[in-house]
Amino acid sequence: MTDFNIGDAFRMFDVNNFGEISKHNLTTGLKINLSFSDFKDDDIDRFFNRFDFKKQGQIQFWQFADAVLPHSQEYSTLVNNRDKIYSKRGKKLSDYFRSDTRL
Questions:
Q1: Which CATH number belongs to the domain containing residue 35 in this structure?
Q2: What residues does 4 pair with on adjacent strands?
Q3: pTM for the whole thing?
């Protein structure tokens, strides 16, 4: 979707602006900011097992980008080059992205 950008997507989970996401941050962000709760703790654990390369219990921005960016280089570059929209405007995290993008 044209309003999706990786910076705002990461910010939805990095609520303290520490530059990293914990399992708790991911769980809370999905439930509160995206109103998505159709997952189990095991799903969060599997995500971290796959993308937390250093096994530190934190996902850095580049690891998050690796997880959510398209595999196609063309589309990945498009999304990666988009500037933040919502965080620059001071929007609530739960208001980031249009409804069709959120789905």
A1: 1.10.238.10
A2: none
A3: 0.79
Total of domains in the chain: 1
Would you say residue 57 lies in a domain? yes
Domain containing 12: what range?
6-93
- Give every CB contact of residue 27 below 8 A, 6+ residues apart in sequence: 41, 44
Per-residue pLDDT of the chain (103 residues; tens, 9 = 90+): 777 888 889 998 998 889 999 999 999 999 999 999 999 999 999 999 999 988 999 999 999 998 988 777 776 676 666 666 666 667 777 777 888 878 8
Q: Give the angle subtended at the CA of 14 by the CAs of 10 and 20, to the nearest 5°.
A: 90
